[in-house]
Amino acid sequence: MRLFVFGLGYVGQAFAEALMARGWSVAATARDAERAAEMRALGIEPVDADDRAAMTAALTGVNAVLVTAPPTAEGCPGLEATIPALAAAEAFPDWIGYLSTTGVYGDFEGRWVFESSPLKAQSVEGARRVGAERDWRQVGRGMGLTVATFRLPGIYGPGRSALDRLRAGEGRRIVKPGQVFSRIHLEDIVSGLLASLDKPRAGGVYNLVDDEPAPPQDVMEHAASLLGVPVPPDLPFNELGLSPATRRFYAENKRVSNALAKAELGWRPKYPTYREGLAAILAAGR
Q1: 75-88: per-residue pLDDT in tens?
Q2: How far apart are the C-alpha atoms of 267 and 286, rounded to whole Å?
Q3: Judging by beta carbons within 10 Å of its beta carbon (0-12, 13-18, 19+), is residue 118 exposed, middle or buried?
Q4: Contact predicate 173/235, CB 8 Å
């Protein structure tokens, strides 16, 4: 069995390693020679996304494809690179997974959103994701490919959590009354992708989020208690100095439901809230 990953980042690598543990071989795009060397050390075949012949060879006989790279103003780079290569290779993978974002929903003033909710993206990045989702659905229908879309919230895990920010002296408690966010542990993304891979449905769209949307300051306070360090002082949202990216992030307030992924895929998050997730990261010394 063979996997191809377009964009072997934090999530892509974790998914690749999970399938390698099942005995799969993996090829993935590499940004540069240094990254290619790192991938070879992991047992992953690096591929130049701009080399059409190399892409065609890498996708020949492929069983699954994961696309993680964000879209640009020109669209999804993963679609533009992989679809012609799949056609040239005459390959028809059983599953193509596209990683999107819950940012496609925009702001719902704290209300619950579901996969069927209107897409009201407020940022350029969110709007591009809406377009990329649409393009993948159309290509899937047009070519008879099984494409599933996964909408992800804030991602945390080993090396990328509130614990790490506190240790680095970068922890902040930005407080905006009534604001909540959904989040997801890296391992739970991987288990959700595996559940879909094992039970593919063409056109499937799933929110992979934890069970408890929560105010970000609560997460930081809990992380500080786990580390036994002082809780960072509150920073009101209207405080001067917040970056435009941070302000865009806080402009969207919603609770994201994971009910469909649970019902259709039989998926359950191993870390249903940030409390279990942060405790596991700390216990692992990561």
Answers
A1: 999 999 999 999 99
A2: 25
A3: exposed
A4: yes
Q: How many other C-beta atoms are found inside a 10 Å radius of the C-beta of residue 90?
A: 10
Question: Widest CA span of the chain, in angstroms?
Answer: 58
Tell me the pLDDT tens digit for each residue of 8-51. Answer: 999 999 999 999 999 999 999 998 999 999 999 999 999 999 99
For 39-62, the pLDDT digits (tens) are 999 999 999 999 999 999 999 999
**CA 280 to the chain's CA centroid:** 20
Instruction: Say how many C-beta atoms besides its own lie within 10 A of residue 22's C-beta.
Output: 10
Q: What is the DSSP string of 200-233?
A: --TT-EEE---S--B-HHHHHHHHHHHHT-PPPP
The answer to whether 286 and 279 are in contact (CB under 8 A) is no
Residue of 271, 82, 107 lying closest to 189 (CA atoms)? 271
Q: CA 1 to CA 28: how far, in whole Å?
A: 14
Dist CA 4 CA 26 (whole Å): 6
pLDDT of residue 248: 79
Number of neighbours of residue 222 by Cβ within 10 angstroms: 19
The DSSP string of 57-93 is: HHHTT--EEEE-PPPBTTB-HHHHHHHHHHHHHT---
Give dist(CA 272, CA 209) in Å, integer. Answer: 9
Provide the pLDDT confidence category of residue 172 given band limits of 50, 70 and 90: confident
Q: What is the pTM of this model?
A: 0.96
Residue 247 scores a pLDDT above 90: no
Closest CA to 270 of 186, 177, 144: 186
